[in-house]
Amino acid sequence: MYTIKEVAKITSISTDTLRFYDKSGLLPFVKRNDSGYRVFSDTDLKYLEVIQCLKLSDVPIKEIGQFVEWTMAGDNTLVERKEFFTEKEQVLEEKIASLEAMLAFLKWKKWYYETACEAGTESIHFIEGSKELNPKSLETYNALQANEKNKISNTPHHYKSI
C-alpha cells in the first residue's frame, strides 16, 4: 500500500492533482486507512496510469469519470469502454496527423530561412522578378527529405486546431 505522497513520487502526478482526481470522482477505488488517509494499491496505480493517459490525451475529466464509472460497473459495460477507447484513439490519431503536418511545415520554413540566410537573401526562393515562391525551392526541399511525412505539398495547408 502507498501513501498519496509515495504515489505522487511514483507516478509524477502531484498530490494536489491526486486529491483533485479524488474529489472529481475519478478514484472511487482508493481506500482510506483508519486515520482517513488515502492508501493506494498496486491495482490503483494501474487505474491512475489509465486516468493520466486519458488526461494527457486531452480527454475531459467528465468523460474520464464516465469511463471510471463503467469500469466500476464491471463486465456489463465492456462494449461502452471499448467504444470509448476506439473514439479516443481516432481523435488522438487525428491530432497526431495534424501535429505531424504542422511539424513538417515548420521544418520546411526552417530550411527555407536557413538557405536564405546562407545566400544572404530570401530572393533565392522566389520566381525571378517577383515575391512568389518558386516551386523549384519546394522541389529541392522535398528531394532532401527521406521521410515522406516531412515533405510539403505546394497547396495551402489549413490546419485543424488541436
Structure description:
The structure is a single chain. 60% of the residues lie in helices and 2% in strands. The chain has 162 residues and is an all-alpha fold. It has a two-stranded antiparallel ribbon. The radius of gyration is 25 Å and the shape is elongated. 7% of the residues are buried.
User: Topology as H/E string?
Assistant: HHEEHHHH
Summed up, the helix count is 6
Q: Report the span from N to C terminus.
A: 38 Å
Strand order of the largest sheet: 1-2
Proportion in helices:
55-70%
- How many beta-strand runs? 2
Structural class of the secondary structure composition? mainly alpha
Helix and strand arrangement:
Blueprint: H1 4-11, H2 15-23, E1 31-32, E2 38-39, H3 42-56, H4 61-73, H5 78-119, H6 135-144
Antiparallel strand pairs: 1-2
Characteristics of this structure?
162 residues, mainly alpha, two-stranded antiparallel ribbon, 6 helices, 2 strands, elongated, disordered C terminus
Summarize the structure.
Helix content is 60%, strand content 2%. It has 162 residues and is mainly α.
